[in-house]
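Researcher: Next sequence.
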Amino acid sequence: MPPTRMQGKPLNRSLHAAKATKQDEFYTQLSDIEKELRHYTAHFKNKTVLCNCDDPKVSNFFHYFSHNFEKLKLKKLITTCYKNCDADLFSKHTGERGIYLEYDGDKSGNRVPDPDEIGITKLKGDGDFRSEECIKLLKQADIVVTNPPFSLFREYVAQLVKYKKKFLIIGSVNARHYREVFKLIKDNQLWLGYNCTRFFSKPDGSIFETARTFWYTNLDIDKRHEEITLYEKYSAAKYPRYDNLDAIDVSKTNEIPCDYDGLMGVPDGLLDNYNPDQFELIGIPFGDLGKEIGVTKNHRGRTDIAITIDGKSRCPYSRIIVKRKS
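Model: Next structure:
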């Protein structure tokens, strides 16, 4: 889960501090969950949903799915909690054993999840999503929805892919540049959802701000089939070429030329509205990923700062290389 922003400190300093201390226990606001989940209603009918990085007492994911169980026509809701020994002390971490909850719908007729309708079981281990017993629960699930620890995001996504699970999860803005994640986006196995958020809550209920976070999913949504309207015409004067990659530079997404068929370096914001029928993702133009797509040494004999124009760096960390499809 996302790191905290300390009062009076810039976001990047707080991110580094949280990374160093592994501060991952922060919670997504219910309003943000509702805002995103409304686009996926059709996916949940007769499905078992797993929230495997959640504290049910404070998790708004558990709240959302349990209170909308009948509306979504769910089959079952499973939620795991890390290192707890008492059902009344979910967030205290007073023991080394985790727990998991199962809810399969309203029995009393009041259409809300009553305590006696929720099955609570102690785990043998601490509830780590990588443990054998948590993987067993994962295998039961059709869709995984949660806010996983950002420090373990790569490993978390790899597990979902390994077990071929549908998912809707929250990750940092930088996650889309991870080699493993970008490859999944390129291969149409993962894409960005509708919204981003900056605000989360701490275990004590206070709200704090982070750098932007995004929803990452492999559930098909209308958004990824909508084409971006392109109206600009290519000219060599407006779109300079890189020194060390056979591609042109496009400084704004809405200025992608509609008549250019070669490689283009465009802002990575294109991934927010990426349509695989309109564009082909080629790669990221820096580091080892840059070498893979043909970035050569620059005028200083280096590839680590990647693409340049007239010997000057051209924001390689905010560019992705794409090609327009006919």
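Model: The chain has eight helices and 15 strands. Residues 11-21 form the longest helix (11 residues).
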